[in-house]
Specification:
By secondary structure, chain A is mostly helical. In chain A, about 50% of the residues lie in helices and about 5% in strands. The first copy, chain A, binds a DNA duplex through helix 3.
Amino acid sequence: MKISTKGRYGLTIMIELAKKHGEGPTSLKTIAQANDLSEHYLEQLIAPLRNAGLVKSIRGAYGGYILTDIPSKITAGDVIRVLEGPITPVEGIEDEEPAKRGLWIRIRDAIKEVLDNTTLEDLANHSNDEEPDGYMFYI
Amino acid sequence: MKISTKGRYGLTIMIELAKKHGEGPTSLKTIAQANDLSEHYLEQLIAPLRNAGLVKSIRGAYGGYILTDIPSKITAGDVIRVLEGPITPVEGIEDEEPAKRGLWIRIRDAIKEVLDNTTLEDLANHSNDEEPDGYMFYI
DNA sequence: AAAAATCCTTAGTAACTTGATAGGCATTAA
DNA sequence: TTAATGCCTATCAAGTTACTAAGGATTTTT
């Protein structure tokens, strides 16, 4: 029941590109160094994002990647779906018995609601928001 | 971003036990056959459920398992936590940057809300509920 | 033209997880 | 005493994860 580093690092890439939106391309090297990640690994993650049309590449020296749309039009759900596959807590919801099927659908819709209503703009701009005191990290 | 067969089959076991609650023990063999699952595999899943105190075993011939509490007091969240670990979309939420941290927390709380408010009674009794026509399984 | 920076592609891999299977011992009701 | 069950440990094939490695293709700057 986890989002892997694919989705998480992919979101990191997209947030970085959102921060630099309108300022020309950002290289993976820059993003990798800023976030202490493997550049080679990020290359593998951005390929599907490019194939899905979420980013555009600019090759050659001083090249890099740019968003194909404004940050307020790209959601976390767009990114997660490309890198993690469809948002669903189980494969083959339709084959489950009605009781369990209903549970999976409610979970799926709850996740979908959050992911599809959070944009890259939200994530890029509000990086310094704080949680309420005493927020529980473990449940 | 998936719940594996551990959590899913575990829930299947618990729903079966909820249906038979008050009628004496149910064997894993019965549950395995009714759901076309491997009895041996279910044995591995029920061990943690027993260790967690959610079910009690009755050994010997005509033995089996029973719930340790009434179905309305055991939630899907109880079962999923035992078999899948803590409910969280990423490991180490607290180490993430604030923007992403907020996103993971909202997802986690959305999932938690559903799982902790769905009891075995809900799942055992409302097995024949139907979804509205045209409900989308893929998103 | 050359060099440097970058994207792009394919392949490999160690560690882990999943979803079992295999074999057998321990306990208890009939 | 026997059959039915729970209980325990080990093994394993396939898939996934999170990389690393190697190098080619493209473009800009010098």
